[in-house]
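Recap slide: histidine kinase, sequence and predicted structure.
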Amino acid sequence: MLAGVVAAASVTLYALYGPDRLQAEGIPVEGMRQPDLLGALLLVAASAPVAVRRRWPLSAMCAGLVPETLLNALGYGTGMSSLAGIVLLYSVATYRGLAVSLAGLVLSLMTYLAGAVSGPARAGGASEYVVTALVLVAVWGAGRSLRLRRAYLEELKDRAARLERAHAADTRAARAEERSRIARELHDVVAHHVSVMTVQAAAARRVLASDPDLAREALSAIENTGRLAMTEMRNIVGVLRTDTRADARAELGPQPGVRDLPALVEQMREAGLATRLRVEGEPAPLPAGVDLAAYRLVQEGLTNSLRHAGAGAEAVVTVRYEPYELDVRVEDDGVGAVQETGRPPGHGLVGIRERVALYGGILNIGPLPGGGFEVRARLPLKDGQ
């Protein structure tokens, strides 16, 4: 379509602005031939390569320069075939590298200058030739600029794709690491329950005949402990996919929980973050896994505030006990630059999301409307536990 438009425009200009028309307008032209069929066919031949300019830009330009040179040599004048030459030069600069595009520019300039010297004299003189040469250079520069912009955009897209893949890989690694850590921690929880059940079963067997009431109490304790252990194990099986047998020698010390939050708050104060702890509602015993998840959430939230909230910020930890839910919230009033745009989720917050999802909770992470940042989780408690 573009080749047809260029050919039609060139033939129209060729037919309208012959020597007689130029002479009537006061532009003396010496030695220019009258428009005829041969000149029109040469113009069409010069415009035809435009159709393949994207696939073979340099070859198309060379093919277009042949009829243009013939037009100049036969005395038809210059300028009528320059429309096709401009389009082809622009295509070479756009679709080929620097060396090839420079070669195309030099070839186009040499062809034009040769035609200007050998063709009929024009009234414009040397100034017209200089202007035309500058136009060719400007067209070449516009094509190079477009090529560089396209290359830059492609590089940005490729970089964004690489960053997205790297982010996905980091997220998977963080989740796998956090799941492995959860497996080690909950291994201790389940091992504790099984040990308690074993001791209570042995005690019930010894006093079964002599003290049935005491044996009945031991059996009730075994039942409650077994239910709690089964709840923990069902949660683990639904999430974890890694083998934890290599971690069987993990530390068997007690895991931290909500009871250790005062010490954690004091530690944050010593690190330079003003921190307050508020406990609302009637404290009640929590499942070991939920207790540990609440502690880790507060720990990560305060670490996030310490890193990003800025100097002079204050953090408030709120633990609210409700009949069927534990609400844990960490808020700060930081006003740093990162605060205003939100903080990127790090690996720690990714792990917290895994922990909360493990127990069917709801997690909210983000900036507060009035400034500051919030990490909040609502963990369901079954049967008030």
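Confidence is low (pLDDT under 50) at residues 241-253, 336-341.
The chain is about 65% helix and 10% strand.
(End of recap.)
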